[in-house]
Amino acid sequence: MFRFLMPALLLLSGGAFAQGSFPLDSAWASARRHYPLLRQQEATDRATALQLRNIRTGYLPQAELNGRATYQSDVVALPIKLPNIIIPSIPKDQYNLSLDVRQLIYDGGATSGQRDLQLARQQADRQKVEVDLHQLRQQVTQVYFNALIWDAHITARREMIAEVKQRREKLQAGVDNGTVLASQVDMLQAEALKAEQQLEEAINGKQAALATLALLTGKTGSEMDALVLPAPAPTGNAPLQRPELALFRYQQEVLGSQAKLTESVTRPKLSAFVQGGYGRPGLNMLSDKFDFYYMGGLRLNWTLWNWRYQRTERAVLHEQEQGIQAQSEAFDLQTRAKLLQQQAEINTLQTAMEKDREIVELRGKVKNVSAAQLDNGVMTVHDYLTDLYAETSAVIAGKTREIQFVYATIQYQVIKGY
């Protein structure tokens, strides 16, 4: 199976560790470092750290300064009069300035639930970037192998041009001696020009691929002097590791954290408080003088009925979780279908490669015989060019199939998420 593939792999990968080479792994790593969205993960981490800092303040004492000045139309008064006793009346204008300090003792798990929710959202947001990076990995792989294919075209076209020029020089000697028609040399010259056009097309194609690769990786042209054809990747039964599947799991964890936080709404909440203030009246409601006061104690809040808000919210979150589960299963199904198609392509290329070497050898023999017959004047230039073009096409097809085979095996692993 690898009779034709392995010599090319050894030739192309022989410089994998040479200075100036740019293997596929390096292209992947460079593209990942250069991708702008990678900085989004850092921004997400910083934002989450700030949010967690705010959430932790829920366990710290909270202080509030409150002030109030009011005038009311009526006040509490005693409906009796006693001799020789003056009962003070409550003033209708009242003033109050207080400092309230509250310390949370138990909040039913609301603070810890908010922390878990933020951490789950952080994981989901980071994984969204990983999904984009995996798509970038696929794009880099495709561009990298396009450049390798164009390089194979360039090599084959240059060999063809050299062959045509060699034949043309030999025929030119015959023209000079009057034994060969000048039109025969003109036909070779026309074919050489056509091959040079095809060579220029291949060079432009490779340059475009390298320019795209440079854009994606942040590298310059001089840093990509030698692309290296990697070894074929193994195709096994390893489980899927697609980042999209991990994203679906993290999104479900976000919904689970939201459900736990919802449950804390109806749990009792206990806190301690201290209040100190100055006003008129103070705590003595019968005094009409400004006075200092303070009080402290415990405060309990417990929502006993909220019109089934908690149950409805849990039902909504459950339906959303089921929707994400359906998306995950559909993605898994589509990915496995792609793997079957990719495996079929690998098998097709593998079968074709087994015939490529023999085809190239036979086309080469036919071309060599035609070249000898052309030199001896027993074959026309047209027939020779037909055989030369057939050999060149076979070489290009064989080299292209080798590269496509390696690409197909690597793409198989990329589809699986590796």
Rough outline: rod-shaped
Q: Uncertain spans, ≥5 residues at pLDDT below 50?
A: 1-18
- How much of the residues is beta strand, in percent? 5-15%
Largest sheet: 4 strands, antiparallel
Count of alpha/pi helices? 8
Order of helices and strands: HEHHEEHHEHEEHH
Strand arrangement, major sheet: 2-3-5-6
- Give the total of beta strands: 6
Q: What is the arithmetic mean of pLDDT?
A: 87
Quickly give the structural class: alpha+beta
Distance between the termini: 25 Å
* Overall radius of gyration: 41 Å
Helix content: 55-70%
Topology:
Blueprint: H1 5-13, E1 21-22, H2 24-34, H3 38-56, E2 62-71, E3 93-106, H4 110-177, H5 182-217, E4 226-227, H6 243-263, E5 269-280, E6 291-301, H7 309-375, H8 381-416
Parallel strand pairs: 1-4
Antiparallel strand pairs: 2-3, 3-5, 5-6
Helix pairs in contact: 2-4, 3-4, 4-5, 4-6, 4-8, 6-7, 7-8
TL;DR of this structure?
The chain has 418 residues and is of the alpha+beta class. Helices cover 64% and strands 12% of the residues.
Report on this structure.
Helix 4 packs antiparallel against helix 6 (243-263), helix 4 runs antiparallel to helix 8 (381-416) and helix 6 packs antiparallel against helix 7 (309-375). It contains eight helices and six strands. It has helices at 5-13, 24-34, 38-56, 110-177, 182-217, 243-263, 309-375, 381-416; strands at residues 21-22, 62-71, 93-106, 226-227, 269-280, 291-301. With 418 residues, the protein is α+β, with helices and mostly antiparallel strands. It has a four-stranded antiparallel beta sheet with strand order 2-3-5-6, with no helix packed on it.
